């Protein structure tokens, strides 16, 4: 990909992410603040690896990449469906950095949420590494590590918010579920 095109895509993507995340960026202790940096790192990985996205489609890292990207898509759709139908989301108050889907009245503990507390963030984690494995290089690996660290910070900040919101029920849920990967992490 020509450098000018890559830079233009990065600039346009960054402007879009800032436009979507501006409320969160004004609250540095809020989970959305850290999520912005995960999205930015993922955008960079996709742009860096875009020219090689379909090279050697049956190479081991390409196959691993497709498995992670498929899992990412499934978890994203599944988690948003559950949040919408089980979480009973409502519009947040004026000036709130929450998106409406995040402002749930009920704690969701079914489906993927039965095993992992953050399937939407797990989806982004799988997306980051799936995109990085398209053409694993020191740069794409470093960006995937940045995305992973940002998602970990996002999840930890959101957990503090959820403990404040749901109290001991959320602490009990934390004790019986994993962060991103069922039975592992």
Topology (elements, then pairings):
Elements (H helix, E strand, L loop, with lengths): L2 H23 L5 H19 L10 H27 L32 H14 L5 H29 L1 H9 L9
Helix pairs in contact: 1-2, 2-4, 2-5, 3-4, 4-5, 5-6
In words, what does this structure look like?
This protein is mainly alpha-helical. Helices cover 65% and strands 0% of the residues. It is built from six helices and no strands. The chain has helices at 3-25, 31-49, 60-86, 119-132, 138-166, 168-176. Helix 1 runs antiparallel to helix 2 (31-49). The chain is globular, with a radius of gyration of 17 Å. The termini are far apart. The model has no long low-confidence stretch (mean pLDDT 93).
């Amino acid at each position: 990909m020509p450098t000018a095109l890559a830079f233009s895509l990065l600039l346009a993507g960054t402007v879009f992410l800032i436009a979507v995340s501006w409320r969160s960026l004004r609250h540095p202790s809020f989970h959305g603040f850290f999520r912005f940096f995960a999205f930015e790192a993922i955008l960079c990985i996709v742009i860096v690896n875009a020219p090689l996205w379909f090279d050697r489609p049956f190479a081991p890292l390409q196959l691993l990449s497709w498995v992670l990207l498929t899992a990412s898509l499934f978890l994203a759709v599944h988690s948003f469906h559950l949040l919408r139908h089980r979480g009973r989301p409502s519009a947040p108050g004026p000036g709130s950095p929450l998106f409406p889907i995040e402002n749930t009245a009920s704690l969701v503990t079914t489906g993927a949420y039965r095993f992992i507390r953050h399937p939407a963030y797990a989806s982004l984690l799988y997306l980051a590494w799936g995109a990085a494995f398209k053409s694993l290089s020191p740069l794409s690996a470093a960006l995937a590590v940045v995305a992973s660290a940002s998602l970990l910070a996002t999840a930890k900040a959101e957990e503090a918010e959820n403990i404040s919101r749901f109290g001991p029920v959320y602490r009990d849920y934390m004790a019986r579920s994993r962060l991103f990967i069922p039975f592992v992490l």
